[in-house]
Every structure is written in structure tokens, then in C-alpha cells.
Amino acid sequence: MSQLRIADQTWTFASASLTVYHCLAPEADWNLALDHAGQTLWLAGTVIPGPSSPEALIGAEVVVDLRALDELVGALLDRPVTLYPNGQDVCALAFRLAPSPRGVRLAANARCDWDRYLETFDHDQPVALELDLDAAVTALYPGNMP
Fold it and tell me: Superkingdom of this entry's organism (predicted)?
């Protein structure tokens, strides 16, 4: 099962599909398609090193593109959000991929500060982010996606 929790809300995704491209580079890019109630939402980032096979993804370090994270969480909350994972001094979400029944597991926990100007939450405290996604590896492209 794939889930994302932010603050006191949790969303479950019917499926998660990972596509990696620029695999021949030292740092590859990835897109994760998430099926939420029939709608496809996206998360993106980079993976180090570029994988030569799906098995090579296990233990690789992924970094989440924070703009993609804001877009995903904003779509789920149905309001704009700017998150600062691990606080404004760090402002990064990175972790290592683990094996999962479908392929790879993207899992991370972080306390997130957020842009108060947007009034996304009804309090002035950081929010907890829990990401636990079981993704099928659908494609590895040596260069750009076709």
C-alpha cells in the first residue's frame, strides 16, 4: 500500500509507478506516477547513482524535487503549500530506496516548516510528513524518456 500523511491527513494511492531516465549519468532523474482516485499525481527527483537495472535502485539515494512535493501535497490538500522539509535551514528530503513487494519503497519522515503567508494550515507549528510508497519500476531509460 502507498500512503502519504501530512499533518493529520492521510491519502492512499491505488498504485505508484517509477520511471527513471538519464540512467547512464552519475545522477539520474525520476518521475513517480501516483494514482489517487483515478487521477494521476506526480512526484519527481533525482537518484544517485544512475541505475543500470531495477535491482541497482535498492540502496540508491533519492532526493525529492521540492517543487514537485509542493504540487503533490497542494493537489491533495486542494490549497497551495510551500513546505520546508527538515526546517528552513535544511530544506531537503533525501533517503535511500529499499526493496518492496512491487519493486522499490520510497519512505521518509520529516518535520516540515511551511510558508505562513499561504495560510495552508490553521496553526503556526511545523507539520509531520510521512511518505511510504510501494512503487513498481516501470522503465529505466539510458537517456531522455521517449
Answer: Bacteria
Could you tell me the sign of the dihedral formed by the alpha carbons of 53, 26, 42, 133, in that order?
Answer: positive
Q: What is the dihedral of CA 91, 63, 14, 132, to 10 degrees?
A: -70
Q: What is the pLDDT of residue 116?
A: 87
Q: Over the stretch 71-104, which tens digit does the pLDDT of each residue have? A: 999 999 999 999 999 999 999 999 999 999 999 9
The domain ranges of the chain are 2-140
139, exposed or middle or buried, with CB in 10 Å at 0-12, 13-18, 19+? middle
Q: How many residues does the chain have?
A: 146
Distances from the Cα of 4 to the Cα of 16, 23, 86, 137, 143, angstroms = 12, 27, 16, 19, 30
| Secondary structure (3-state) at 73 | helix
Average pLDDT of the segment spanning 39-61: 97
The closest of 21, 33, 8 to 106, measured between CA atoms, is 33
